[in-house]
Amino acid sequence: SLQTVAELDNFQLDAVQVIEVSSEGESGTMNQTVTSKKDGKNEYIKSTNDMGTGEMEAWYVDETFYGILSIGKVYAEIPYEKYVEKYMPKGATAEGALMNIPSDWFVDVKFTKVSDNEYYLEFIVSGEEYKEYMNGALNNMVNGIENISYKVYFNGEGTLGSIVTTFEMEIMGVTASVTSTSTISNIGTTQITAPETDESWQNLTGKM
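Below the sequence we write its predicted structure tokens.
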């Protein structure tokens, strides 16, 4: 079933993340939602949280990137091959990375029957290799990942339900414990269209 997920080229993935952060004796909890869509070569992602920090919305449509980011509204023409090489291979999120994790990274694989209509596949992914994986998208800011626990839920017909990941990492001196629950929907029906732009959008073609 993981192979089936890896082969999907049209779907929507919604993730709810509970992130417990601690630094120098201070601690807090941030709730974050991430929606990502894929339609062939076109992609969309939106991230929001209850602290209002680091929120973003981005599109990649017809070899053009559009982003509503902390620096403002930007767009840039980027050939697909360059986009894949620079922005896609490492997986910006645990859910995105799941699509391409090599099977030999899985350890302690277990299959559990919850009921006649609910099962889950549970496994651990190497933290050290995963750290390198994450750093490709996060500019080498990630440290301290031990192992990542995955639970992938299915119903009795084998249809994928939710994906639950838990792991701890350190980013720029802040320790974050992350629990992320993802669901995949709209398989084969997802459509992505570019946002309308005006003079408030900055052209960064050749600078990204």
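The radius of gyration is 18 Å.
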